[in-house]
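To make this tangible, we now present a fold written out as tokens:
***
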Amino acid sequence: MSHEMLLPSPWQALPSRKGKWSRERQRTTITTPLFSRRLGGGKRSNRRRFLAAAEREFTPFEQEQRGRTSSSFVDSMNATNSSRGDKIVDISKNSSGRSSLTYAPEEGAHDEGDVNGLAFPERIYREAVGTNTSADEDILRFCEPVLRSDDSNASISSSSNNNNSARIIKRGKKLRVAVLLSGGVDSSVALSLLRAAGHECVAFYLQIWFQDDFRNFWDQCPWEEDVMVAKRVCERLRVPLRTVHFTDDYWNLVVKQSVEEIQRGKTPNPDILCNSRVKFGAFREWLDTNEEEIGTFDRIASGHYAALERKEDDETDVKLVASGDARKDQTYFLAHLSSWQLQKAMFPIGGISKPRIREIAENLSLVNADRKDSQGICFLGKVKFSEFIEEHLGTKPGEIREIESGQLLGTHKGFWFHTVGQRQGLKLDKRAHEGPWYVHSKDVEKNVVFISRAYHSEENERERDSFECEDLSWCRDSDADQLSRIERCKVRHGESYYRVLHVEPTTPNTAENQKLKIKIDGKDQGLAKGQYAVFYGGSECLGCGVIC
């Protein structure tokens, strides 16, 4: 069993970041030509400070203090890199009608000892042939410890049979990889490691935002900053970047269903659907459809905290394995991926801890090394979930009643703004109704939200150690005995698992929509219809079901 992440050849590296080197000024100047208009309002926001920092000039001393490229290295590379630069090579609509924007490194003449326009000693070039696509020794210097040896900060799960923190397939096998780049540090480091391992990479930014929903938030628009950062990262790593519009797919495959589920009183998870239906679904189909234009890709990589295991003799048999960093593990969001999707997937950072990720990004001078992680649903950015729901479902005033007595305690704007276990946002008169109050349940037909102060009482907790789930999805088609392998489950993203005490099918195995009854070893305080339950056997993620 091979644990899939990264395995480099002896000499691998990436090109230097874009920048003009002036001997007279002794400064590396980084510019951002993509967006020239003023961003944000009058007050200097954190976002504008971030953009200002991204465009500032660093002295060689500052670069060395931050682990950046030294002036001597830039000077030595100047002779081979001075005439190179990035340019927009394509703004077009492809065969599927989507518009896309492509950035790519300038092509240069390559001689026998030249890789991507950068001169190599002959002995290094011979070892790099077939595995190396570019060269920049400063990036190799920071990536190589991760690529070559154990990462002491990774906390790799012992059950994953992995003694190397970042490995991809086999030594000397060069892959063509479509890398999903979000503008965040995780996907940027994933791209860096793939390039350092010698794979041919093309970065893709999937545009899924909705203009109508952001019309009042243009000074905070998340996609603009994300695209700028993604472009800067690709300039640094000499990787072409394409932005592809998936707004319609995202609406039809993810958002529309999520809004409908919320309207029915359920609590869906759009991010799970986004991964299976868009990032590794519609996007993969788009790659296949446009193969003549963009070429064939061996893998689709992302910056998710997860790992894959493949059999040496059968690469179609793929296991989805929990990340070595339990706090950041994202297999919960990937559990809806099918075997067909996992066969082509790649998660380069799955064995690396978050602090190590930021350290690598800092050492590589990536502009987003200190950028905060995104929170909440990916397509909303800084728009509040309640505002998005109100935009699409409106308001429907109803009653808030105590579950035990039926007493009327207040009103709400619509039951879809509340979920089971919720404590904040009830807006009750605290002087008249001393809490704390929790959402106990909802009557969708009568538009009533029931709350309780005794939410954690023994009587109310009695039924919180079991649930039913439907719409089952399994990660491995070849595993005919999934139910017997279920040992643990998660009912939400996070570190916490429940031990599964009993699994009982409530429908025949031949039923089109098989259902399961799950009994767990704890009493969960927020089980709600529409949530995903994700099942594990050891560190392997087996699949998922929707709580019903």
Remarks:
- The two ends are 36 Å apart (CA to CA).
- Residues 1-95, 99-135, 149-171 have pLDDT under 50 and may be disordered.
- The domain at 2-363 is CATH 3.40.50.620 (Rossmann fold).
